[in-house]
Amino acid sequence: MATFKDFRNNVKPNWCPGCGDFSVQAAIQRAAANVGLEPENLAVISGIGCSGRISGYINSYGFHGIHGRALPIAQGVKMANRELTVIASGGDGDGFAIGMGHTVHAIRRNIDITYIVMDNQIYGLTKGQTSPRSAAGFKTKSTPEGSIEQAISPMELALTAGATFVAQSFSTDLKDLTALIEAGIKHKGFSFINVFSPCVTYNKVNTYDWFKENLTKLSDIEGYDPSNREMAMQTLMKHNGLVTGLIYQDKERKSYQELVPGYKETPLAHAELQLDEEQFDKLVAEFM
Amino acid sequence: MINQLSWKVGGQQGEGIESTGEIFSIALNRLGYYLYGYRHFSSRIKGGHTNNKIRVSTTQVRSISDDLDILVAFDQETIDVNYKELNDDGIIIADAKFIPKQPEDTKAVLYAVPFTDIATELGTSLMKNMVAIGATSAILDLDITVFEEVVQEIFGRKGRQVVEKNMQAIRTGFDFMKKKLGNIQKLQLEKADGKKRMFMIGNDAIALGALAGGCRFMAAYPITPASEIMEYLIKKLPAMGGTVIQTEDEIAAVTMAIGANYGGVRAITASAGPGLSLKMEAIGLSGITETPLVIIDTQRGGPSTGLPTKQEQSDLMAMIYGTHGEIPKIVIAPSTVEEAFYDTAEALNLAEEYQCPVIVLSDLQLSLGKQTVEPLEIDKVEIRRGKLITEKLPEIENKGYFKRYEVTEDGISPRVIPGMKNGIHHVTGVEHDETGKPSEAAENRIVQMSKRLRKIENIKFKTPVHKNVPHEEADLLIVGFISTRGAIEEAMARLEKDGIKTNHAHIRLIHPFPTDEMMPLVKSAKKIVVVENNATGQLANILKMNVGHAEKITKLLKFDGNPFLPHEIHTKCKELF
């Protein structure tokens, strides 16, 4: 059986020292081993940005696509081969700006993949512009007087879009994060995990210390019930979205794959491609 | 007796014009006639003039006819807009209800037939199109029992009474018209051969070709005139274990298809110009990551929303060069419905063999024109997967990556799909080395870029140019692509009669351009006319760029939204001599 070390490769990440993304990388590697995967059965599909490089830093199949499109690529991979474990990942710019359309629709489509967002509230790779997660008033190179737009609340948005698994974590909580990713992989349907992953170079506001001060663990809230969507929404609103843990899970709803009429149990990637004559004649006859 | 007939039915959109043409065509197709139907419609659901022009012939036809024999009108606008096409002995049959006015400057005769009144008397005015079919049958002296089967198929589920009422409507229309005509029987159709043939639109053939070619997944976004492809596949794929996802947008469609192809299934997407514009970045991703991808582009009038329901061939340059940077890409352009079937199946092979995007370029006329098709043979469709590795791979030491982008002589590298043990590698749209790891090194860049571009240098495509070249030395070479083929063939026959030695080359492999195939044809012709539905002469420019001889080339362009008619090509070509 593979251990987390088997999911390490010999590529040295080009992230800045101290970047939150290192922990996310480690958590994915541990979670993959913990759920019993072999490296060849995992495909990590990522977008563009600092965090998008993650698919190259894990010893598994990896596809580093184009900006904002990790989700449709990942859904295509899963549809082709339902036996693969597919993780899509990227940054907050990737998932909540250029790729927001895909995020909302991937949530409501509920294909069985796990989506991990490394949320640092800033554009890092392009050297410090505002992101849809930047708070109002946040000063960046593209908002020198402070951002005058409202920040997106991804967790609340996911709940309204019909998500079946919504979780949030902080990159220093390696143990919790690993457990959430494991739960996400096991969840039958689309699992969405937003990870506060501080940018030590360009974000001087939302720092490690800032998160430690402002985050509330759901496990510390008495009586919190992640199967209660209304409670999930209220708690998020009360804490301004700054909570960590499993926010909501719907274990009843079937995944997309389970609902597609005729969709084979065996991977489509191994389907017979040749039509036999009888099949073809039947199709032809319909046009006569 | 006539062996060819042109019939048109027109009225307001949403009035059942389409089903009138459909029922008429299916029945005649089953009698063994060759049909060619083209619909004139607008981008709205109800209202606006629409018509369906159908050509009936005892031999295969691939073009709209120049003229018109019978016009069935459900409103005055239909008469006003279309009567000029009518022959001198043409006939207008119009619904008496709107008190049709005979146009003055035509010898065609108008008969007012109470379509609506007869239908209403029989139960519902909805059956007025059946009355019109009956009246048409009387003019052509058709045995109306041929409609029984079709009516049964369409209305059978609504019960026997509905079927009988509709047949009664046809019969009453027939009897009424017979009485009106008396002994006049100018348009009696020659008997057809009675053979059963398929009757389909180009999009049906594309979708069927995709199935035959092993496509098991499609991701697409609805758009005119491509939607029929996804609509057909969503009906058929579940029985084969596959499916179609209607995505949130065009970019999701193409990137999902890329993901699925990377995952190992043969997956396609289809769209029209606006969608292709949105897919451009992803096409580059398929190019640099060497992920197979088949895209169908059913061209329509551009730019922007342009003429969304009209014929045009103006995406050519965008399809050849579209996407930033430089990638290997294959663009093929079927010119008949039969070719649309085989070419789509073959596109799936090419995409896997050359590991690059393949664009199947159709146009509205080919995609939506409904016609009788010669038998399609599944035996002629082969599945070739190129350098896809399916057998076990040797272990790689020290977590080394599989050389997915190994530099080879033909530029094509071995390919594995996720799930394969010892096949792990990285895939990225960033320039990369042989294992897929990002690399900005100058030397690597040159090696990898050259490797990719080299792949399609010696592409094998069975018929890169459809040639009809009776002359070693020709006065005229006509060049076209996609749906202009039928009109060019008919114009060519007339030019030959005029004594102008004419050759015809229809280009099917658009990119890489078949220069070697075209060069001798261009050299041996005194004049060249390039026929295309766009305003700038894109195909002519491509021809000049690759083959030269600009001085011989004349552009024959039409960009009013309508397909070429044979006489337009004939007249323009003749003027050159």
UniProtKB/TrEMBL annotation, chain A:
Domain of life: Bacteria
Domain Pyruvate ferredoxin oxidoreductase beta subunit C-terminal, first and last residues per copy: 199-265
Cofactor list: Mg(2+); thiamine diphosphate; [4Fe-4S] cluster
This enzyme's EC code(s): 1.2.7.3
UniProt record, GO biological process: cellular respiration
Molecular-function annotations in GO: 2-oxoglutarate synthase activity; iron-sulfur cluster binding; metal ion binding; thiamine pyrophosphate binding
Stretches of the chain forming a coiled coil according to its record: none
Gene3D superfamilies, per the entry: 3.40.50.970
InterPro entries: 2-oxoacid:Fd_oxidoreductase (IPR051457), OFOB (IPR011896), PFO_beta_C (IPR032686), THDP-binding (IPR029061), TPP_enzyme_TPP-bd (IPR011766)
Domain called Thiamine pyrophosphate enzyme TPP-binding: residue spans: 48-195
Matching Pfam families: PFO_beta_C, TPP_enzyme_C
PANTHER family linked: 2-OXOGLUTARATE OXIDOREDUCTASE SUBUNIT KORB, 2-OXOGLUTARATE OXIDOREDUCTASE SUBUNIT KORB-RELATED
Protein name: 2-oxoglutarate synthase subunit beta
Species this protein is from: Bacillus methanolicus PB1
Gene transcribed to yield this protein: korB
From TrEMBL, chain B:
The keyword Coiled coil is assigned to this record: no
Top EC class of this enzyme: oxidoreductase
GO biological process: response to oxidative stress
Alphabetized SUPFAM superfamilies for the sequence: Pyruvate-ferredoxin oxidoreductase, PFOR, domain III, Thiamin diphosphate-binding fold (THDP-binding), TK C-terminal domain-like
Domain Pyruvate/ketoisovalerate oxidoreductase catalytic: from-to ranges: 14-175
Molecular-function GO term, any one: 2-oxoglutarate synthase activity
Domain called Pyruvate:ferredoxin oxidoreductase core: residue spans: 474-565
UniProt-listed Pfam families: PFOR_II, POR, POR_N
Record-annotated Pyruvate flavodoxin/ferredoxin oxidoreductase pyrimidine binding domain positions: 209-449
EC number(s) stated in the UniProt entry for this protein: 1.2.7.3
Stated name of the protein: 2-oxoglutarate synthase subunit alpha
